[in-house]
Amino acid sequence: MTARNRSFCAKVLRAGGCIRHGVGHVPPRQLLSMRFFYSLFDNGIISSDWHLRRKAGTRLFGFRSGRGGSGSSKNFRERLRSRHLTEWALGQLVIESDDHILDVGCGGGDALYVISRENPGGRCYGVDISEAALAASRRKNMASVKSGKMKFYKASVSHLPFDDQCLHTVIAIDTYQYWHHPERGLMEIRRVLQYGGTVLIALGTDVDKGKARESSAARRIPDGEELRRKLTEAGFCNVTVEVSGDRECAVAKKE
After folding, report:
1. At CA 250, angle to CA 244 and CA 255, rounded to 5?
2. So what's the pLDDT on residue 60?
3. Residue-level pLDDT at 234
4. How many whole angstroms separate alpha carbon 205 and alpha carbon 174?
5. Residue ranges of the chain whose pLDDT lies below 70
6. How far is 92 from 186, CA to CA, in rounded Å?
């Protein structure tokens, strides 16, 4: 992107209300960095409103609906949605410095990356049924993997490769709706949790809800009360459910 085009984009974004104040000179490579773009709205420079973020992404990166691939506006929106859901969900969790934590359906490893920074003395584990997701998680958390602090396994929630009562916390962020056997998955999570351990299940209910409910009954997104009932039936107690807009999160204990 030339300096002239960057200047044009800045004018358009300011006119559209996307940029609230100037960011000064930005080198072309940094401007085209997805991480830098994240930092713009994380720090309030770009509006948190999705439509304005989409306009900014389109102007800066050329995202267009229908182009497909990882650079499409649809996939970009999903990444933003997933990131915001993860940050909100982890805010409901109390993490001790030496906890052993499992992420079920770890995807690209974003949640474990955040957790590992708050959990310097503990261990983190991720499971996923996708080899591509596991590879992405390892790349994201390469330093922790090399140090032995973080490990990843190809497995489903119904058959977790862990001993009984060996984990302090298990999280599942935006994956519950894809479990083929939710009841079995919750029982398996309870098996690997220590007594007093915590399970957190967070769901986004805005984008995938209709699609999930059309696919099969096993891939539907439950409301908060149904999620509370499922956890209680699986033997968990002290279930709390938080709902914020198009997000819901359930936290429960094994006693």
Report:
1. 155
2. 45
3. 95
4. 9
5. 1-79, 206-220
6. 19
Find how far residue 79's CA is from the centre of its chain: 8
At 100, list the tokens: 């052993």
CA distance linking residue 152 with residue 145, whole number of Å: 9
DSSP secondary structure code for residue 221 in this structure: P
Beta strand 150-154 with 123-128 is parallel
pLDDT digits (tens, 9 = 90+) for 130-183: 999 999 999 999 999 999 999 999 999 999 999 999 999 999 999 998 998 999
Side-by-side strand order, sheet with 247-253:
150-154, 123-128, 100-104, 167-173, 193-204, 247-253, 237-244
Number of other residues whose CB lies within 10 A of the CB of residue 238: 12
pLDDT of residue 7: 56
Given the DSSP bridges, would you call strands 123-128 and 167-173 parallel, antiparallel or unpaired? unpaired
CA angle, 234 then 235 then 241, to 5°: 80
Domain boundaries, the chain: 3-62, 83-253
Single-letter residue type at 196:
G
| CATH class entry, domain 83-253 | alpha beta
| 115/107 Cα distance (integer angstroms) | 14
